[in-house]
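Let's study today's protein:

:::
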Amino acid sequence: KEAEELVQAEVWWAPGFVPLDEEQLGALGEEEREGYLELCDAAFVELSEEQLDELLPVAGLKDKKKMAAHAAKREEYPPAHAAVLARREEQARAAAARQAAKDAVAHKLRLAYVPRDADGEACVEAVEVDGALVAGFLAEFRDTFVAWAEGHEAERTAAARALCAEREAALTAELEDRLRGHWPRRGRAEVGARAPREAE
């Protein structure tokens, strides 16, 4: 305990993470242990020799107890670092294996939907296009379209203005014709009043 008081509690762990000792770790269940180890791997901070010398200096210390505590603590770093790296590599291999299994199943499913004849031979070639190739095609199409649009901007603007002027003139003439049909004609009221008398 006296040696632990002379050393920082969390040297190569993220702030707020409290590592468990062997007794506490042994009391955990299997799922709890796996969860703790995942948190442990995420909270572990890799340190260089210079950082260790800065956090746990040994040379130049006058206090022999503190020097011994720092030296003992530094000896705990290599095995802890190796254990974390081993677990990370194992997790990476497991993730790669799971992804490979998913890819294999997806490939089999794609092949299963290929039309086949009565003899079981594939009637249509199963074509697999790489995603990077499709992304390249889309990027090339985008660049070509944007360049074409920028090059024809002035032409489109002039055509739009000419069309606007043409339609404005045509619609104005049509409006005037329709309004002219509603204008009152001279003498219409008089003719309407005389017509019954002439018939009598």
Observations:
- The longest helix spans residues 64-112.
- DSSP finds eight helices and no strands in the chain.
- Residues 1-9 have pLDDT under 50 and may be disordered.
- Residues 4 and 69 are 7 Å apart (CA to CA).
